[in-house]
Amino acid sequence: MKFYNKIFYILFLASSASSCNKQLDLPPENILIESQVVGNENSAQALLASTYFKSYTAIRNYYYMSGDVATGISVTLATNGFISLWNGTLTPTSGLVQTLWNNHYSAINETNIIINLIPNATFSSAVKSRLIAEAKFVRALNYFFLLRNFGEGALTGNLSGAGLPIQLVNYSNYDPSKNVARSSTSDVYNQIFKDLDEAAESLIDLTNATPQVFRGRAQKTTCYALASRVALYKRDYAKAIDYSTKALSNTTQYVLVSSPALVFPVTTATSNIPLSTELIFAFPVSYNSDIADNNLTGYFSKTAIWPDPIFLATYAANDIRRSAAMIVVGNPAGPVTRFCPSKFSNPFGRNHLPIIRVSEIYLNKAEALVRSTNSINAEAISLLNAIRQRSFPIGSKPAPFTITSFSSVNALLTAILQERRWELAFEGHDKFDKIRTGVAPNTFLTNPNKWIYPIPRREIDLTSGQITQNPGY
After folding, report:
1. Closest by CA position to 158, among listed 193, 181, 185
2. Contact 86/10 with Cβ under 8 angstroms?
3. How far is 334 from 329, CA to CA, in rounded Å?
4. Under DSSP, is residue 40 helix (H, G, I), strand (E, B) or coil?
5. With contact defined as beta carbons under 8 Å apart, do 360 and 229 qualify?
6. Is the CB of residue 157 less than 8 Å from the CB of residue 451?
7. DSSP code string of 128-153
8. Is the separation of the CB atoms in 224 and 151 below 8 Å?
């Protein structure tokens, strides 16, 4: 199966039924076409590829921007539309929030087609089981990104807040009686865990897949890894520890490499850039042949987004993550005072989009261990040391932390969160890590109501207010 944007298929939905056909007693064409798509193994695989690609489309546009621009790890121009992610000026009529909502729910709808209709297909049961399991992972992934961006209380511990409309049935045609109100944030979290648990039960970690397939499609470990982050955000630390432990159990195929620079090598290649063994899940952009399908070339050009020099100065002098191996020149024609992270340094814009890495799972587990035990936890310190020590060259490594390095539980948590900020910089985590730990993203974004996005006005109007607006909008 070729990757994401190499798969093109046409689902003639309601548009097909809008022709001048007078045979009004015919069954809706969209139902017939959907059944045909999932009834054939090749077209069902193509539909699954589409769900991954639509997820990538939603995440690449706003995931990284919102996570790092909002806290100042990355800088953007005051005239750039993404400044609204920093100062909280998004409105319910913003095209940005409508596009984000549409892209995620479009992917969810296609996963629902797979989950609900493939059981009736006649091809191999093993193939059907894997497709359904992958679709559940993709559905969980999209609901998670939607929840943390739009869910009331999703990051602040208010599990009774208004979450999202949970759509588990594929769309057939517009019917107001089928409108779904927003379920509680707790119910959305539970649905995400349910999908990930069921997907993990059906999936294995493939041993004979090519790197782009293995790390670009859901495996058993992929499900556990995403669940570890979801549990951390939900503040269910026992679950976060359990999922992290499971995600770290495959030490053959998912490996914390010896240097962070090896995860994101500087390259000028146009295709088939290797995927590091540290990537648990990534969108393998370089394996697509359409060079227009780029990935955050704004970082390379340094005119739309670039690392904040003040943030870069917070790294220790010998830290590889601020060295020339990972903070590079970028476009030589761009502003010489600005730099580009090697995570997005390809001049052709064809680097992979990392979503989950082994290093994050180390830090997820470390934080959850400290919070769940309320202690200066030795295992947590060992996990923290693994990330910190590999970030310095041989001969310049700092002394490892020990239990006596920390005067309090809060001191250890501060060290873990700071390491997380350095390690995952420019990967879209920082805003959400700040909010879930009770810290305003920046001095202009102190109103907690603005820490999540407004529900698109169109969704409220289409449902006659059955989908409600977030407070403060």
Report:
1. 185
2. no
3. 9
4. coil
5. yes
6. no
7. HHHHHHHHHHHHHHHHHHHHHHH-TT
8. no
H or E stretch at 340: strand 340-341
Euclidean distance between CA atoms 423 and 363, whole angstroms? 9
Contact status, residue 295 vs residue 351, Cβ threshold 8 Å: yes
Please count the CA atoms within 13 angstroms of the CA of 68 that sit on its side-chain side.
Answer: 26
Q: Which residues contact 217 (CB under 8 A, 6 or more apart)?
A: 52, 134, 209
Torsion angle in degrees (nearest 10) through CA of 187, 191, 194, 200 = -140
Whole-angstrom distance, CA of residue 143 vs CA of residue 163: 10
Gyration radius from the chain CA atoms: 22
For 405, the token pair is 């390095």
Q: Which of 405, 403, 433, 404 is nearest to 418 (CA)?
A: 433
Residue-level pLDDT at 183: 98
- Supply the pTM of this predicted model: 0.92
Please name the amino acid found at residue 317.
Answer: A
DSSP type of residue 328: E
* pLDDT tens figures, 153-173: 999 999 999 999 999 998 877
